[in-house]
Amino acid sequence: TEPPKGLRANLARLYQTCVTEETFDACKTKHKYAKLLFALSYFHAVMLERRKFRTLGINIAYDFNDTDFSVSDDVLKAYLDAYENTPWDALKYLISEANYGGRVTDEIDRRVLSGYLNQYFCEDALEVPNYRLSSLDTYFVPPEGPLQSYKDYIQTLPQNDRAEAFGQHPNADISYMITDSTITLESCLSLQPKTDGGGGGGVTAEERVLDIIDDMLSHVPQPYNHEKLMKDKEDDLSPLHVTLFQEVERYNILINNMLTTLHLLKKGIKGLVVMSADLDEIFDALAANKVPGIYLKAYPSIKPLGSWTRDLMARLDQITRWIKEGYPKVYWLAGFTYPSCFLTAVLQTTARKNAIPIDTLSFEYSIVNAEEKEVHQPPKEGVYVKDMYLEGAGWDFENGNLCEPSPMELIVDMPIVHFKPTDNKKKNAKGIYSCPLYMYPVRTGSRERPSFMTFVDLKGGACDSDFWIKRGTALLLALAT
Fold it and tell me: Example GO molecular function term (predicted)?
């Protein structure tokens, strides 16, 4: 059955159905158990409710249930009774990795579980009176007392939860409400008839789609001359140029596909050829201002048709300038169909240059305090990357670190970042947040094309790594608009 909505409702249900007087009194170390049981209950409720924040909350919506809670409760009782000193590491591992983590298939989601348990399962939760479970004073671990005292406390909690109760910024509420509203509006639009009425003298769907086709055809260029490109660059067959050849090949497939299908659809609308099922699908997509699925095989995107077309032109412009002017000083990583292949080529370049195995290298990241027009030379090692977006945090441009976002600041444009290949040595993780980098806002991607690419090390500023993990802070190469 679907669990109730809200932290209070979820906590009340757990204490009503899963915690009885008998189980509550079963642990010998009652002074520890009562408090940590509440912390565990809060953890369970938070993980269920966090799903409402969508990608800012968790990448995949897991169905955590009462069995997960009950097994963790049994582990908690057993380990508290077995050890005089609280075995924090063992408890956190068994609960977040083995029990709840057994359902979790996403590495970044696993970090979220660990981040919460690091906060809820600690010595302060036992020693500090009314230990706070969030930045709000409302949610805390109640003092040791009978079972009823915990039930009474739960009833004092607000019915509507603020984002801060989950370790989120208030902006997260705005973000998920915008997403929910968009889904509702799209559902309403999908109920509209596909064709316009013919009696009102308005523009028909066919006429609108013909205008869209003409506009797209006026922008889509002819395919690149792949053979000529390879011949022109034959004296410099670097890993980066091999990536360029592959990108040109993929974009040529997309361009040819678009030119062929758009011309065919134009003829089909005019009655010159029979409309196939594929052409019908493309027609419906264009009429709804969506990108036809056949075009999305080149690279994933959730942009509407107009934005996607402009984005495609910008991608092709980067490729064209690279062909004509040589290696870019600053790369637009989102402009590649397979940006991860480009980053591998960057590592290969350094590996060949220094005659070392590529698996001994990884990236080191630093912020470039300059505008693109002020960058006159590429770096000696690695590449400069522009136009990445930060979600779930703000950026302190003066100090070069993460910070609290301003109200309504849902997305932040990042400065240029230097991706520098360096030896695989243990890096100093203190004050650093390993920020996941995704291709586009759908963080899970698809089975064929995962969205996650790598972790980019960013300075965490005044907050530790767990703080930003709970915020769902991430870098995106592309946006939804």
Answer: dynein light intermediate chain binding
Tokens coding 129: 């009176």
Phi-psi region at 415: left, alpha or beta (left = phi > 0; alpha = psi -120 to 50): beta
- Secondary structure of 160-217 as H, E, C letters: CCCHHHHCCCCHHHHHHHHHHHHHHHHHHHHCCCCCCCCCCCCCCHHHHHHHHHHHHH
Domain that holds residue 275: 203-327
Q: Residues 196-209: pLDDT tens digits?
A: 544 555 789 999 99
**Packing angle of the helix pair 239-269, 277-287 (nearest 10 deg):** 100
Contact 437, 453 (CB under 8 A): yes
CATH of the domain at 227: 1.20.1270
In a domain, 257, yes or no: yes
pLDDT in tens, 64-103: 999 999 999 999 999 999 999 999 999 999 999 999 999 9
Q: Are 93 and 142 in a shared domain?
A: yes
Based on the fold, state whether residues 292 and 336 are members of the same structural domain.
Answer: no
CA 468 to chain centroid, in Å, comes to: 13
How open is the CA angle 428-385-105, to the nearest 5 degrees? 60
Asked if 227 and 317 sit in the same domain, the reply is yes
State the total domains in the chain: 3
DSSP 24-51: HT--S-HHHHHHHHHHHHHHHHHHHHGG
**Does residue 164 fall inside a structural domain?**
yes
pTM of the model: 0.94
Closest CA to 339 of 432, 405, 420, 246: 246
Write down the pLDDT at residue 470.
98
Domain boundary among 285, 301, 327: 327
Q: List pLDDT tens digits, range 415-471.
A: 999 999 999 887 778 899 999 999 999 999 999 999 999 999 999 999 999 999 999
Residues 323 and 379 placed together within one structural domain of the fold? no
